Amino acid sequence: MSTLSKEQLQKISLAYDSDPWWYDIRGFCILTLSYRVSLLNQIRFFAQNISDNHLEVAIGSGSLFSLILRYQALRGRHPKHIVAFDYAESMLAGAIKKLASNPGIELCVADVSLLPFADNQFDSTAVANAIHCFADLDSALKELNRTLKPNGTMACNVLLHPRGPRPLRWIANQINRWGIKKGILVKPYAADEFLTRLRAAGFQIKTHRICGNSMNVVATRI
Ligand SMILES: C[S@@+](CC[C@H](N)C(=O)[O-])C[C@H]1O[C@@H](n2cnc3c(N)ncnc32)[C@H](O)[C@@H]1O
Q1: Beta 203-211 vs 214-221: how paired, if at all?
Q2: pLDDT on residue 190
Q3: Of these four, 19, 48, 73, 92, which has the most CB atoms within 10 Å of its CB?
């Protein structure tokens, strides 16, 4: 049984029930003004951590992930087997369209708090722009840890409380408040709190780097 209530699950579907093209434009504005990071920063960071047996968590409309795969292909890297999932069916529909031509990618609907995958299944996992959208962070991290092989790596980024000059902080705070009201953001984190919860879920932190208002983390399963 998922640790999320029926209402929480329904809230996710409703919050993300928009056309994938609108979701992408909105996402780009959020990335620039709330996360304060560039798309290239994200592509480079996530492209480092895709093995031949990879789990892409909460893939959304698939726009970022298809750019990451293109970036990898330009460098001669073609991951063999990728499983990707999201809970919002409208988002997943966009991902299915964008990734249809990529062999070796399986897409499915799943809740990160109750994954339909075996223990020790994947060599790598990535969670892009979604950790702070999970209603039950600890059960999500537990599931991501369970499905990763020992020593397997997870790359993720997490939205932090806005920092920097006052006007930029104000804009980011306004966007975050709107996101929480709309249901697309649960909360931003303090860097230390997030790292502590990752460790408690059985991860060892390899690297963590703050970029703008978000933190990129690479961790391995102990
Ligand atoms: C901000 S989007 C990020 C999508 C994509 N990774 C990207 O970077 O563009 C967050 C995604 O998390 C998904 N999500 C939220 N809660 C979830 C849950 N419990 N299980 C699976 N997916 C979830 C949403 O449906 C949404 O597509």
Answers
A1: antiparallel
A2: 98
A3: 92
